[in-house]
Amino acid sequence: MEPMGTRTKIGLIALLMVVMLTGCWSRRELETLDFITAVGLDHAAEEGKIQVTVQMAKPFAITGSVQSSVQEKPFHVMTATGYTVFEAVRNLNSISPRRPFWAHARFIVFGEDMARDGLQEALDFFDRDGEPRRTSYILMAQGVKASDLLQAEFSQEPMPSEGISELLQGTRLAQSTVAAMTVNEFLQALEGEGIDPITVRVELIPLEEDFAIGGDVLRDEVKAKTRMTGSAIFKDDRLVAWMNRPQTRGYLWVTGQVRSGIININEPETADAYVSLEIVGSRGSFKPQLTKDGIKILVQVEVHVNIGEMQQYIDIRKDPGLWVSIERRLTQVVKNEIMAAVTKAQLFGADIFGFGAEINRRHPKEWRRLRENWEEEFKRLTVEVEVKARIKRVGLVINRTPIRK
Amino acid sequence: MLEWVKALLGNSRVRQTDRETKLSSSLSVNRKRLSQAYGDSGDVIIRELRVGPRKIRVLLVLIDGLVDNVLIAETVMKPLARRGKDWKSPRQALQELSGGLLLNVGVRVTRTMKDLLEDVSRGGCAILIDGVDQGLSVVVPGWVQRNPGEPDTEPVVRGPKEGFVECLRTNTSIIRRRIRDPRLRIEEYQIGRISWTKVAVLYIEGVASKEVLGELRSRINKIDVDGIGESGQIEELIEDAPFSPFPTILRTERPDRVSGGLLEGRIAILTDGTPFALILPATFTMFFTTSEDYYERFLIGTVLRLLRFTSFFISLVLPGSYVALLTFHQEMLPTPLILSIAAQREGVPFPGVVETFMMELTFELLREAGTRLPRLVGSAISIIGALVLGDAAIRAGLVSPAMVVVVAFTGIASFSAPIYSIATGARILRFGLIILGGTMGLFGVVAGLFGLLIHLCCLRSFGTPYLEPLAPVIWSDLKDALVRFPWWAKRTRPSLIGVEDSIRQVSGLQPSPPREEG
Question: Residue A239 sits in which domain range?
Answer without folding.
Answer: 30-243
